[in-house]
Specification:
EC 2.1.1.-; golgi apparatus; alpha/beta; transferase; transmembrane; signal-anchor
Length: 538
């Protein structure tokens, strides 16, 4: 039944389907014929557009690829500023230390030996030329004992200090036997005697200050004992003392204890010495000794060798009376006691004092206390006749300002100033991140210049040192870094010294440009302001 019904439905509907299809076909045929006849509106518009269009302007079309005809614009490169070399007469020029200018200032308190910078119109804008025949310095440690004569062509010290074993002229080189005025048997023997009292060997002492350093043999020989000494001496009639030190690869700057504070932070050095430095320690009510106290760490050591120590032996040589020398030594010892220093040793030519670890251990009336709120605000600030106060402590055994680990652990430990939140914006975590970043930077620098980290580059300067991470990443017996904290930057130099590194405050703007600091053929500057073989930083 179902099949029969279906077949009958198909038969009744199929004529209708056929009729509809035929009608649609006819309709489409008629529409097509109408359009073709020209009466269609769209066709008329097309004809009008064709008549109005001038196709002749496209007769020159070229359908080849045009990539080769596109002008390639190179990225613009900044033009490097080229500095010319200064006249050869400026070979020994040191900014702010010109001899002619210095002689116009008072001799009192060594003011004429301090920094006196030129006016704007006299500043140099050229590269200081190297001495004629300048040679690459000897690699360390040979460089400690030998310097090319061509690099420091001054023989006066070989004559003036001939009997004191400072320096000898041999052929075309200077030889430094390691002697000094107060250690004729050599710096090693002298340091051995100091080490019998001062814990130099175990890393407790890392940073040292040599006041009136000569050619810096004390600092040179301390290096093999992992002690970094900052040496300074004035630019006086002993030509090129500091230049000799730098050529040897030893940290040194031109400086003097005069009327202006030293460019170092408070509590910076673990040890300081005066080896016949001829500084009048009792003058100005002990002002110079008070400045040494400011930069000496709690628990640090001060060494005095030379007048007036051992006056009974040398009073005739020094052409002074016994009474005068005895009174001077007594006065020094009284000043030391008022600063909470204790004399630990006196034998032969050497006396050693130790600063107490805090003020609670002072058992007598101390010198007047300075009122300045910031003991590290020292740039071009006059010295004062007063004792710089130490940070407060809660017990007699606590080290004022915080205790330090022994070196080398001290290098990467969080410095007390950061741990106590005294450096704005710096935490223990950001300190670690800074170290990590600087290690990455140094690794990249070494890929660019494979000589970094070798003995080829001995003296290195970080001109914006921040936390000292760059120097810490480079730490090696093969080189040392002078960490400069600009006076306009955040004051972090105290942190750098707490890490067992050395550095100095400086105002780069005073020099206007850096070209006068470096010999034209010996500078190396990276994006991190790393410069090799810096000379005479004032």
């Amino acid at each position: 039944m179902g099949t029969k019904h279906s077949s009958m439905g198909f038969k009744t509907r199929s004529p209708l389907y056929i009729f509809v299809v035929i009608c649609l076909c006819c309709l489409f045929y008629i529409l097509g014929a109408w359009q073709k006849s020209g009466f269609g509106k769209g066709d008329g518009i097309a004809i009008q557009m064709t008549k109005k269009t001038d196709c002749n302007i496209f007769t020159e079309l070229n359908f080849e690829t045009h990539h080769n005809y596109v002008e390639i614009i190179e990225p613009s490169q900044p033009k490097a500023k080229v500095f010319k070399s200064c006249h050869v007469k400026y070979t020994d020029y040191t900014p702010c230390q010109e001899q002619d200018r210095a002689m116009k200032f008072p001799r009192e308190n060594m003011i004429y030996r301090e920094r006196h910078c030129p006016p704007e119109q006299e500043k140099l804008h050229c590269l200081i030329p190297a001495p004629k025949g300048y040679k690459t310095p000897f690699p360390w440690p040979k460089g400690r004992d030998y310097v090319h004569y061509a690099n420091v062509p001054h023989k006066s010290l070989t004559v003036e200090k001939a009997v004191q074993n400072w320096v000898q002229f041999q052929g075309d080189v200077f030889k430094f036997p390691g002697g000094g005025t107060m250690f004729p048997q050599g710096a090693d023997a002298y340091i051995d005697e100091l080490a019998s009292v001062i814990p130099i060997a175990d890393g407790s002492v890392r940073t040292a200050l040599d006041t009136g350093c000569g050619v810096a043999s004390w600092g040179a020989y301390l290096m093999k004992r992992n002690v970094l000494a900052m040496s300074f001496a004035p630019r006086d009639n002993h030509e090129a003392q500091v230049q000799f030190a730098l050529e040897r690869g030893v940290p040194a700057v031109i400086g003097v204890l005069g009327s202006i504070r030293l460019p170092f932070p408070s509590r910076a050095f673990d040890m300081a010495q005066c080896s016949r430095c001829l500084i009048p320690w009792t003058a100005n009510d002990g002002m110079y000794l008070m400045e040494v106290d400011r930069v000496l760490r709690p628990g640090g050591y001060w060494i005095l060798s030379g007048p007036p120590i051992n006056w009974k032996t040398y009073y005739q040589t020094w052409k002074r009376s016994k009474a005068d020398l005895q009174a001077e030594q007594r006065k020094i010892e009284e000043l030391a006691e008022s600063l909470c220093w204790e004399k630990k040793y006196e034998k032969g030519d050497i006396a050693i004092f130790r600063k107490k670890v805090n003020d609670k251990n002072c058992h007598m009336k101390s010198a007047s206390v300075c009122e300045s709120k910031d003991a590290d605000d020292v740039w071009y600030k006059e010295m004062e006749t007063c004792k710089t106060p130490l940070p407060k402590v809660s017990s007699a055994n606590e080290v004022a300002g915080g205790g330090l680990k022994k070196f080398p652990e001290r290098l990467h430990a969080v410095p007390p100033q950061i741990a106590e939140g005294l450096v704005e914006g710096v935490t223990a975590e950001s300190f670690e991140e800074d170290n990590k970043l600087l290690r990455k930077h140094v690794h990249a620098y070494k890929r660019i210049n494979k000589l970094i980290g070798t003995t080829r580059y001995r003296n290195i300067m970080d001109m914006n040192a921040r936390l000292g991470g760059f120097a810490a990443a480079l730490e090696s017996p093969k080189s040392w870094v002078m960490n400069v904290v600009p006076t306009i930057a955040k004051n972090t130099l105290g942190v750098i010294y707490e890490r067992g590194l050395i550095g100095i405050y400086h105002d780069w703007y005073v020099l206007l440009n850096l070209t006068s600091l470096f010999h034209a053929n010996s500078g190396l500057i990276f994006s991190f302001c790393l410069t090799v073989r810096f000379c005479n930083v004032p």
